[in-house]
Specification:
seven-stranded mixed beta sheet; 7 strands; alpha/beta; 226 residues; 35% helix; Rossmann fold; 24% strand
Amino acid sequence: MASADNPYAALFADLTAPATFRPGALELTRRAVSLAGLVPGMRVLDVGCGTGATVAFLEQELGLQAFGIDPLVRPGTPETRLLSGRGEDLPFTEESFNAVLAECVLSATGKAAKVLKEMCRVLRPEGTALISDLYLREPGPGSFPAGTCPAGATTVDSWLKLFEEAGLRRLVWEDHTRELMGFIARGIMKTGSYREFLHSLFPCLRAEAEGGKYGYFLYLGRKEEP
């Protein structure tokens, strides 16, 4: 979730059905919802919802009242619970949701602190933030395009500090780097090489991108009472 012409736009442009493009996909979403103790009927917001695949899953499979927002949602989309907008300016009133998800999104915004502040604003007291994203295992100079998850990834300590400063109390931190490795391996099998896999994700790449070593995490945080 970056801008209407962000590096991920090509992934969504030609799709005829909703899809996910992240490690762990919907199974990691299912785990996060289970760990959070969410029950049917609760209101949930998916920040950076992309095609709306997760919103549909939350509603149809888990019985939640789900909404999604993303700058890539096309105006006039028939699904009324998918809105065009940005995570740093959510068009919802305070304390509107029992839970807010951001799956492989915060690192791509370039404005993680602002997005987290908005997520906490719309969370009800004792509501839960469900976040999965890349982290840097070994920081190093990167060459991924701005607006992509690898470009915005940071260390575990930096992520935890951001969450705490936003007003979240840690409930769960899990390492899911295995899911990231599986995601990459499947991409290589489909495209033929790591280079082609990267270019399938980011067509704007002009060379094979380099950077630090990445991991993947799942975090659940409870909104602290004022």
